[in-house]
Design brief:
The chain is mainly beta. It has two helices and 25 strands. The protein has helices spanning about 10-20, 360, and strands at about 35, 45-50, 80-85, 85-90, 95-100, 105-110, 120-125, 135, 140-145, 150-155, 165-170, 175-180, 185-190, 195-200, 215-220, 220-225, 230-235, 240-245, 260-265, 270-275, 280-285, 290-295, 305-310, 325-340, 345-350. The longest helix is centred in the first third of the chain and has 11 residues, at about 10-20. The chain is globular, with a radius of gyration of 20 Å.
């Protein structure tokens, strides 16, 4: 991945974009890359999905069209998004429920939860290695669990315990961000019992206290918290020790206005969604800003009030067909946006044939 020194024009575009003045890359009629050509491209916008009609734009998605329902909204107001075993899952806060796009069967279904598992205001989704879905519901103030067949299994959370926004899973622990008490609960996955809490207001660790922790991510043995109220990302050990904070409020490089979704690639590069700047900033494992992508507007690659981001290596085969013929994907990036024309956007990270990436790889 290129650094700011390699792309001076890109750095200028970041500055202008964050301040709301840039138009972004030249979209024209061809593919949209970040950084824009003739720089060595790293990210390409692949697809946008908002309605059933969007899913019928040709190729593998053509068969998604369901007769007269072709203009039906795919999703009303998404927040959480994930992909697992050939299926895209997007939480619809207005559904309320979650949409399932089966990329293998080319089918679309909607899950509301039935009777005991009925969702009121679902926000985020996390999927474990057994295909169970963990849905945070701020209407029920619980974490709802659905199995591989989207059947309701159980709920975590008693009255007054938390107002959950996101869940991260590591082994037999559930890390639940709490918007009401401004902390993260660590639960035993089997019993639901609280093991401990972190980022508590009474903690004496400098910089470790959070306000409105909206999104979570785990990379190796570290927990990353999107501290929306304090305009930063906070890093903890999985056992609750505060490590460091990244970012501060501002409108210049590396700063945040409303950070939400977080995702990390296999190299430890961190992608942070900012729903106010309406873009994604990418930092390396040292906290240095590398590039940004997205941006507000009505073009297919734009994101408007984005909320969540998901990085995936296992389902690249379903999207390579949408990439430039010379652009080889390494992983895909899914982003949910609550407003605008593009509710679900898919980008691909990779390399273009004929370009030298030796410096950025090092």
């Amino acid at each position: 991945m290129k650094t700011m020194k390699v792309f001076p024009l890109l750095v200028l575009s970041i500055i202008l974009s964050v301040s709301g003045c840039a138009t972004g890359p030249d979209r024209g009629s061809g593919p949209v890359f970040y950084p824009p050509l003739p720089n060595s491209p790293r990210i390409q916008h692949l697809r946008s999905f908002s309605s059933i009609k969007d899913l019928g734009g040709g190729g593998a998605f053509a068969e998604f069209i369901l007769g007269k329902e072709s203009n039906e909204a795919l999703i009303n107001k998404p927040y959480g998004v994930a992909i697992h075993d050939g299926k895209i899952f997007a939480v619809d806060t207005r559904g309320p429920g979650y949409v399932v796009l089966d990329l293998k069967k080319r089918e679309r279904t909607f899950v509301s939860g039935g009777s005991s598992g009925r969702m009121k205001k679902p926000i985020n989704i996390t999927i474990d290695n057994t295909s169970n879905k963990y849905i945070t519901d701020t209407g029920r103030n619980q974490v709802l669990v659905f199995d591989k067949k989207d059947r309701f299994v159980r709920a975590y959370g008693i009255k007054g315990q938390f107002k959950p926004s996101d869940v991260a899973i590591h082994g037999n622990r559930l890390y639940v961000s709490d918007l009401k008490h401004h902390l993260v609960h660590v639960l035993d996955k089997r019993s639901g019992k609280t093991l401990f809490k972190l980022a508590k207001p009474d903690m004496k660790q400098k910089g470790g206290v959070v306000q409105f922790p909206t999104n979570l991510a785990i990379y190796k043995d570290k927990l990353f918290i999107s501290d929306t109220g304090n305009f930063k990302v906070v890093k903890y050990t999985l056992d609750g020790k505060y490590l460091q904070s990244l970012g501060e409020v501002g409108s210049t490089l590396g700063k945040f206005a409303r950070p939400k979704g977080i995702a990390l690639d296999r190299k430890g590069n961190m992608y942070v969604v900012d729903s106010a700047f309406e873009n994604v900033q990418v930092f390396n494992d040292k906290g240095k800003l590398l590039l940004f992508f997205g941006g507000p507007g009505g073009s297919p690659d734009n994101i408007n009030l984005p909320t969540d981001i998901y990085i995936d290596y296992a389902n690249v085969k379903y999207f390579q067909q949408y990439a430039d013929p010379d652009f080889k994907l390494e992983y895909v990036i899914l982003i949910a946006s609550q407003f605008g024309a593009n509710k679900l956007n898919v980008y691909g990270f990779g390399k273009m044939k004929g370009y030298d990436y030796s410096k950025s790889d090092n």
